[in-house]
Design brief:
alpha+beta, 2 helices, globular
Length: 111
């Protein structure tokens, strides 16, 4: 595996293109880990592989391709949420040199 993917609201497209993917605690993170106090959550970048069904955020999001050869692979871990097979977490910033926008979403609801 040399590529992983990240979905993001198109609203953040310019910021991601400028700064890369930054670990954070976003609304999707909070939804999947409901019941865990926010203070116990650590900022992360969420990624997925394409060997599983495309991660469904219920929105037409941007899709960023991540070249994991440019990351510290020891920091890539499987997501521990049991419903998210094929998903991974990364606790460090991902630089712009390691990402490429491969799909421009509209941001509209598809769910």
């Amino acid at each position: 595996m040399t590529k992983l993917y990240h979905k993001s609201n198109p609203y953040y497209r310019q910021e991601i293109a400028k700064n890369g993917l930054l670990p954070m605690i976003g609304s999707s993170y909070l939804a999947y880990y409901d019941g865990i106090p926010k203070r116990k959550l650590k900022p992360l970048v969420f990624m997925y592989d394409r060997n599983v069904t495309e991660y469904n955020s219920t929105y037409d999001d941007d899709i960023w391709e991540i070249d994991i050869k440019k990351l510290n692979c020891r920091c890539i871990k499987k997501d521990m949420c049991p419903t998210l097979v094929g998903c991974y977490i990364y606790n460090k910033p991902i630089p712009t040199s390691a990402i490429k926008l491969i799909y421009k979403g509209s941001g509209k609801s598809i769910g």
